TrEMBL record:
Gene3D superfamilies: IHF-like DNA-binding proteins (4.10.520.10)
Protein name according to UniProt: HU family DNA-binding protein
Source organism of this protein record: Sedimentitalea todarodis
Family: Belongs to the bacterial histone-like protein family.
Membrane-spanning residues: none
Length: 95
């Protein structure tokens, strides 16, 4: 498995793909990231065509165990961010 692409590498690739400078590509990436963050933290979902859907899911209160001590305790209800991968992306990865 190769290393993940860094933000700098992503901005450079985006700038090349858009035929623009890195500053504009970085601003576009930051704007998209901000939009996704606001929408998902507000309880909504964002679909990135060809990539997948990012959404927030609520988990109920539950009993969990500390693996170091074996002690069980109640964990409060919380929210987690999930992503469902698009079929097009899965198909392209699997050949």
């Amino acid at each position: 498995m190769s290393k993940p692409m860094t933000k700098t590498q992503l901005v450079a690739a985006l700038a090349e793909e858009m035929d623009t400078d890195k500053k504009s590509a970085g601003a576009a990436l930051d704007a998209i990231t901000g939009l996704i963050t606001r929408e998902v933290s507000g309880g909504g979902a964002v679909t990135l065509p060809g990539v997948g859907k990012i959404y927030c899911r609520e988990r109920p209160e539950r009993m969990v165990r500390n693996p170091a001590t074996g002690e069980q305790f109640k964990k409060e209800a919380d929210k987690v961010v999930k992503m469902t991968i698009a079929k097009a992306l899965k198909d392209s990865v699997n050949g």
